[in-house]
Amino acid sequence: MNDQRFRQLAGWTAFISMFFAWGTIVVSLTAVGFNLDTFYASVNQNAAGMLPILAQNPSLAWWPSIFDLFGFYLLLIPLALYLWRQFQPEYGQWSTLFSVCGLGYVFFGAMGAAVLAVVFSSQAAAYAVADSTEQVVITAVFAGFGEAIQRGVWGILDPLLGGVWWLGMGWLLQRQQRALGWLTIVLGAVNLIGGVSAAARMDAIAGICLNLYFVLAPLWAGWLGLILLRAKPTPASV
């Protein structure tokens, strides 16, 4: 009974995360006044370009990171634990290795989102009332934090950890859920390629992989969440 309830929890949180994740794009566009050039620049780790626009309404700078925090990270914790428990009896340390990488992806990514929520909103508010000299300093702080989180954590570390998690779990999942397993493998490969490309400063390839990740990761979470919610209460069901 406890396993069944936890499966339901993992299914619901994974399914709900899909809406928060895709909602991140909507609130991000709202925050930059639906300026597509600024939006795509921020996606490709050019945070400083957002600052003058965010300063017009600093409260909006808070919400993209909060949606990101829940959509791509925190709401996936039950799912990561469920998958580890589900595959650990048969696959032992392989399941543990993949799950540790998955939890690392979740925790480091969530930390980055929480930091940016505070930094971006506070610096946007400061920029709005600063003189031109102070704005230069604020822009440097804003860009520094953005570069560290967006390129370092979200661009390199998280894709590598998440890539191993999704590739590994895809290998295990495709034996029971073939289509979902292959989607998971593709998601893992996209992340690994993106992380390696970002580390090698191949920004064009990393940007393409990041855009694919924004689409595939929520789709994967929602799909797997539905499977768990509809699964029969048997120990062997994924």
List the keywords.
single chain, 238 residues, mainly alpha, 9 helices, elongated
Q: Termini, distance in Å?
A: 15 Å
Largest sheet, in brief, is: none
Order of helices and strands: HHHHHHHHH
Helix/sheet category = mainly alpha
Strand content: under 5%
Quickly count the domains: 1
Count the beta strands: 0
Radius of gyration: 19 Å
User: How much helix is in the residues?
Assistant: over 70%
Number of helices: 9
Which regions have little confidence, pLDDT < 50, spanning 5+ residues?
none
Q: Indicate the mean pLDDT.
A: 89
Global geometry: elongated
Report on this model:
With about 240 residues, the chain is an all-alpha fold. It has one domain. Helices cover about 85% and strands about 0% of the residues. Helix 1 packs across helix 5 and helix 4 packs antiparallel against helix 6. The longest helix has about 40 residues.
Describe, in short, the structure shown.
By secondary structure, the protein is mainly α.
What's the SSE blueprint?
Layout: H1 2-31, H2 36-43, H3 51-54, H4 63-73, H5 77-91, H6 93-129, H7 132-173, H8 178-199, H9 203-230
